User: Fold MBL fold metallo-hydrolase from Iocasia fonsfrigidae.
Amino acid sequence: MGLKITTLVENSLGENLALLAAHGLSFLIEEDDKSFLFDLGQHDLVVKNAAELGFDLSLISKVIISHNHYDHGGGLKDLINNFGPQEIIVHKDFFEEKYGIGKIKMEYLGINYTLKSLLKTGSKIQEISDNITYISDNIFIAANFKRKSSFEKVNKRFYIKRDNELVLDEFNDEIAVGIKSPKGLIILLGCSHPGVVNMLNSIIERTGIDDIYCILGGTHLVEGETERISKTIQYIKDLDVDYIGISHCTGKKAEKAFKQELPNKFFHNSTGTTIEIM
Assistant:
């Protein structure tokens, strides 16, 4: 198995200063002769950074979007405008309108397109509802995470519009990507709004795999209390994960705690970071 995971977009820049960074997240997954995008940032940086790295995005087999927030799905329009119709995988609840309590008022946080507008581009949309959906022999999408963790509460800052009313968003649309590798399971997270522990627990329970090599992505611990951060770190310690490359919505406080508690396993995953397994 040849596997390469490149972070095309993250809030921060790594060593390659020719790349561009912005608040958001996007992963390029190359597995043998197949390539996938997991999230697309908020605008055209996926297209620009892929070009800078010499990757032809016309080779992408499928696009997977973790949830309906602008900083994860906003770049899809630019991808389609540059490379034509795409095969897109989202959760069946993906197209519900997303809002959040801002500094002054309720703000729209969702994507800049609709199901109807996507279909007009000729793109194909697969709306998944199963707990586990395989897109190749070794890559699957995990969904419908069970909320069991007592310390991972529903964030009361986020809402969805349903029947013309704003109701608390439990992020039923959030999905993650799992990759079976010779070194163990690799898990890619968008924002982990349902809770990192809830998501990992669900994946382990449903796949029967608890040998996790690496966790990459966002954890949304930026608003997490000290107790939640501490218990999340302890959970990951107990799993004996080899590496944890988190960033984006994790927050400085949580990243500092991860670095202190897991100094040989934690790294800040930035734009341009690459993991390769042969």
